[in-house]
Write a structure and sequence with these properties.
By secondary structure, the protein is α/β, with parallel strands linked by helices. The chain contains eleven helices and twelve strands. It has helices at residues 17-27, 71-87, 100-105, 113-121, 149-152, 155-171, 198-212, 223-226, 229-233, 243-254, 289-310, and strands at 2-5, 8-15, 32-35, 49-54, 93-95, 127-131, 136-139, 179-183, 216-221, 237-240, 259-263, 269-271. Helix 6 packs across helix 7 (198-212).
Length: 311
Amino acid sequence: MLAQSDCGADLVVAADPELIESAARTLGLPLELDEYRAAAPREPHRRGRLKILAIPCRRPVVAGRLDAGNAPYVLQMLDRACDGCMSGEFAALVTAPVQKSVLMESGADFSGHTEYLAARTGAALPVMMLVDERMRVALVTTHLPLAEVPGAITAGRLLTTLRIVHADLGRRFGVPAPRIAVLGLNPHAGESGHLGREEIEVLEPAIHRARSEGIDARGPLPADTAFARRALDDVDVVLAMYHDQGLPVIKHASFGDAVNVTLGLPIIRTSVDHGTALALARSGRADPGSLRTAVALAAKLAATEAAVAGS
């Protein structure tokens, strides 16, 4: 979590202190832990020190080994951090990768951070967006089997997604009139109905309605050319219809440096662009680049939102 101060970001880590200390010892990293106190003065993060909001593990942890018995620990950390952001105690939330399968096997209704945080905060429709230095890619649908995607894309869902992307790029990214490239669902954006009619019957009506509301939505565009360099130069965000239509492109370009941002929430939430990499646990070989970028972006978004709200 991040608490904003006049001097920068005050980082607070929700975790088991013994687990963090054990990992630091294994990796030979110098580390001092400070107990998090909500009433304490805020101060910028210092290298070699972590402010810990202590939440104990339920069972002993073995690096790289999955244990459904610790699923409640994971959810408790997430709930505490989310609730702190909702109350204003924290300015933003940064999540590390999570093993979805273990949480599901424990009985938790958990398809991903995005959906879980939306339910926790009462958000009607969360929108996943990945960001790197050159592009932003948002999604209309997220963790769905491919066969269920066409039925999930309705004119109402697309219009709501466009409204969220338009609003959040303005208030959190400082882009007041974002140019949104909307991809088609089918190859060649349906080829005038010869390769599918979703573009004509669903996407185009939603895009026309969005334009009537002052949203700069463009498309539907063929996905195979929308990511060309010249095309990207003319837009601020690409809106893909499903997970593997848009994310492979940005991950190919910037894997390890991109950041996952959830739009449509009443809180700021960023995350890494990768999974848990269990084989690298406590090996010292994991690349923290995406996490560092996620923290930096969360701080920037919090500052931009505060500035826009105060203007």
